[in-house]
Every structure is written in C-alpha cells, then in structure tokens.
Amino acid sequence: MKISRTRHGRAHSSVGEKLFRAILLLLLALVAGAGLLISSGSLAKSDRQPRQRLSSTPVGASNDPASDSSKKDPSLWGSPKIARVTTTLVPNSRDDVDGDDSDPDLPPFARGRIDEDTYLRLREEHIARLRGLELDKPFDSGARGRAIRQMEGQESRLFEIGRGSSIAPIVGITAAWAALGPAPIPNGQVTGGSTSTPVSGRVTAIAVHPTNPNIAYLGTAQGGLWRTTDGGGTWTPLMDTAATLAIGAVTVDPVNPTKVFVGTGEGNGSVDSFFGVGLYRIDNADAGSPVVNGPFETRVIGAGTGASNGHAFLGTAINKIVVDPANDNRIFVGNSLGGGGVSGDVICCGGTNPVSGFVGLYFSANALASTPTFSRVSVTAFNGVQAITDIVFEPGSSNNLLFGATDFSGGGLSGIYRMTDASTASQSPSTAPATTALVLSTPQRNIKFAINKVGATVTVLAATGEVDNAAGTGCATRNGVLRRSTDGGATWPTKLTAADGFCAGQCN
After folding, report:
1. Fewer CB in a 10 Å sphere around the end CB: N or C, the chain?
2. Cis? peptide before 372, omega within 30° of 0
3. SS3 annotation, 332-376
4. H or E element: which one contains 144?
5. pLDDT, tens digit only, all 508 positions of the chain
C-alpha cells in the first residue's frame, strides 16, 4: 500500500487505505454499543505535535545569514497569538486540561469511538477536500486565479449564447440583480455592547491619498481591497479576482499616488490570519479602470543575501510596505508568519513542498517594473525566521529607516532596528545597509510605529507587546508598553507609563 508524507511529518495513505479507514471508523461506531473497544491508534499517527520554537541554527543551516539554508518548523503555529510561540515544549493535548464533557473539539457522538487527535485530523482533511486542497500535493497559489478566470469565461460564453434566445429568462441573463453584500452583519458580538450591534470583518490596513483625503484604500483580513473616492460614502472592491483576499498591507506611492502597493497575507498572529501569495501593484488606482498587476514575489541575489529557493513572500504575510520618497522604484517590504486551513498551519520558512519564502526585511530596486524582484536584506544574526512587524521612513528621508522585528528562533533578536543609510541598499551589486539594534526583548514582541517630523525634531512612538514591570502591580504587569523617541529613533529614553498594559494579551 502506498504511503506518502506531508509537511507535518505524519503519514497519509492512498485512496484505498482512506476508504478502509472510513469503513473501519463506521464499524467502530456500530460496535461501540456492544462494549467492544478497539484502539484507534492503529488508524493514523497523531499530528498533534508539541509546539516548539524555530531553532536559531536549524539542522543543515549555514552560519552565514545570507544563505537561508535554515529549514522550516511546521509545528510553530500552534496558537492564535504570536507570543504563545514559546521557547519550551508545550503539549497541545487537552486531555489533561478539560474533561470529556467540556471538550469542544470532540462532539458527544464521537466520544468513546475515536480519539480526539484522529477526529481533528480527519475533520481537517475533510474540510480541505471541500476547499479543493489536495493534501498530498504542493499548495497551488494560482488555482484560485485560474478558477476565477475560467468562471468569467463561462459566464461570458453563457451570455453570448443566451442573449436574445429563449433560454435567457431561464438562466437569468436579462434579470436584474440585487446587491447582497458586503454589508455589516446584524446581531454581531461586541464587547460590552448589545448583541444586536452590526459588525463587519477585520480591517487590516488603511492608506489615504497624500493630497486628496477623499480617496482611501482599505485592506481586509479575508475580504480583499476596497477603495473610496468620496470620503467613505461608497466603496468599490479592487481585487476580487486576486489569488487571495487576505490583505496585510496597503501603501500609496508618495511619488505617484496613482500607484498603490498591496501586500497579501495577514500577519496579525491569529489562527485565522491567513498567509498570502506575494505583492500586488495597482496602476491607475484612483481612476475608473485600475489595473491590478501581480502577484510578485520572485527572490533574487541582492542586499547581502542569496536567492534561496527563489521565493520571497509565498506562504507568508506581508505586514508593511514603504516607498523611498525620492525614488519610488525602491521599496522595502516586511513579512511575517501567516496560517492556513482551519488549524492555522504554517508553511514558512523556505519550504519546497509546499513552497514558501522566508520572513524578514526585503528590498526591491525595480518595484515599478513589469516583474519586480526582491532580495532579503542581510541583518546581523538574522537567518530568515525573524519576522518584521512594521517599517517607517523618517519623513522626507531616504536614509533613516526603522523596523520592528520579532524573533521566532528564540535567539533574543526581537526589538527595534535602525538604518541611517537605507539608500545604499542594492541588488546589483549586492549591498546591505548597516543596521543598529536598539531595544531588544525576549520573547517575541509585536512592535508598531508612529512617526512625525516638525522642523528638525523627529518624534517616534513605538507600541510594543512588552511588559513594563512584571514584578509591579496593576497595568504595569500586563502586556503593552508605549515608548517615545525624540531623535528619530536613535535613543528611546521615555516610557509613557499611562499606557502600560494597553493591549494585555492582544498585542503579541
């Protein structure tokens, strides 16, 4: 009997064995009432592996951070929060926490007939089949796009065939269509509010036109990209035919605001923050006929690192895109982990089956080309598992750049980083700007920036997932620290203690 192995290292069988397993499970259900006990351990190997950190020096990895030879750890994403990815082994099994009556993942009809691990795995396989995902084949990022194009072609042919014929009323070609959405969901759950409050899905990114505040772009967790040209009165979807609807970053080109860069994949660390397929560029974004280009994610030698497996962003989530204010061909992109499927499986970093890119700070010198390319920027001790949570340029500067990093290797590299020569980044020749580590913290920390420049004073606020004083009292013992710099991020002498604990467990 043929056995193949997936990225999780667990065995999956051929169609014949799957059919045999389904029949055996049915027999288990039939004989359970007669008191027969059959161990389900022979049905399949559990995939509920303990969560563990990514090794800072994976097996087979080179000490050269440019090599990216480190291997992925598919068990990393075991929690809805980034901070829950710890440096110690944490059992996933709920058997020692909840009793059978309180286990939401094993319905009553299955108790005593099948163990929880096997049930969850079979359920995940079933849902994957419904979604068209083939467990024994590599993830196909272009499948959705091809399906949409095929559907549009079929609709077009149907229209041509049915126009003016007797079948038109049957297929509804001439019938009027009524808009069904998107629209707020009534009876939404709101903390501290009425259960009848209308709600909608997560907004993950917003970008406003630099000279016309009535034009804005809104990215959503699983609803694509939307544009308003009347200050939010009406919204138009721009990326319904994209290969993914998970959006993590939106940036309007400050040099040419008719162009908008869109990063796919949501890097917010929840179990339903899905990975993306790369970066899109929308030309004529504020016009009546915007042109969506992409996705782009080809990785090449440059910025001090190699080409690795040729993929920059596939299977990851783009958190931020910044454009050089003096040259919009030059952009920096930061990406992080993203999940997939009902269990939030991670396929990062640098895998080949399924294919995925590494996380880190990326640079492109040809962002306006028909096929832009990207290079991971070499940063001391980074090896492709240090995610970027945010990036900002000093207003008006092409050199002074800050980025926040969260280290999934457990190597103590999380913190705030600063460049003062970002304009020297180059793909050919391969040159990386110098980087200075400013605030390091362990374990992983989510970091977001706000920056402003008045005269010669550059003020930066950094909201982090740190705990101000774990030994203290009140809010100081909770996650959430707000730091302030008044010299462009060179030093961070001030903590705004009134903001301590502002995000508790929601900012990691």
Report:
1. N
2. no
3. EEEEEECEECCCCECCCCCCECCECCCECEEEECCCCCCCCEEEE
4. helix 143-162
5. 333 333 333 334 444 455 545 554 554 444 444 333 333 333 333 333 333 344 433 333 433 344 444 433 333 433 333 333 333 323 333 333 333 455 667 777 777 788 888 888 888 888 777 766 776 777 676 777 788 888 888 877 777 666 655 555 545 555 566 666 567 777 766 666 556 677 778 899 999 999 999 999 999 998 999 999 999 988 999 999 999 999 999 999 999 999 999 999 999 888 889 999 999 999 999 998 999 999 999 999 999 999 999 999 999 999 999 999 999 999 999 999 998 877 778 888 988 888 899 999 999 999 999 999 999 999 999 999 999 999 999 999 999 999 999 999 888 899 999 999 999 999 999 999 999 988 776 676 789 999 999 999 999 999 998 888 877 777 878 888 899 999 999 999 999 989 988 888 777 6
Give me the amino acid identity at 234: T
Which helix (DSSP H) or strand (DSSP E) does residue 216 occupy? Answer: strand 216-220
Strands 331-337 and 361-364 turn out to be antiparallel
- The span from the CA of 43 to the CA of 33, in Å, is 20
Beta bridge partner(s), residue 375: 363
| Short-list 487, 469, 466, CA closest to 415 | 466
CA separation (Å) from 55 to 75, 89, 338, 385, 389? 12, 12, 18, 9, 20
Strand ranges in 94-139 using DSSP code E only, listed in sequence order: none
Which residues have a Cβ under 8 Å from the Cβ of 171 and sit 6 or more positions away? 158, 162
d(CA 414, CA 385): 11
Asked if residues 501 and 476 have their Cβ atoms less than 8 Å apart, the reply is: yes
Q: What are the structure tokens assigned to 423, written together? A: 């304009």
Tokens 């499927």 correspond to what residue? 341
* Distance (Å, whole) CA 213 – CA 142: 35
What is the CB-side half-sphere exposure of residue 136 using CA atoms within 13 A? 10
Classify 315 in phi/psi space as left (phi over 0), alpha (psi -120 to 50) or beta: left
Number of C-beta neighbours around residue 86 at 10 A: 15
Give the strand pairing for 298-299 and 291-296: unpaired
Beta-carbon contacts of 417 under 8 Å, excluding residues fewer than 6 positions away, are 379, 402, 403, 404, 405, 435, 436, 437, 438
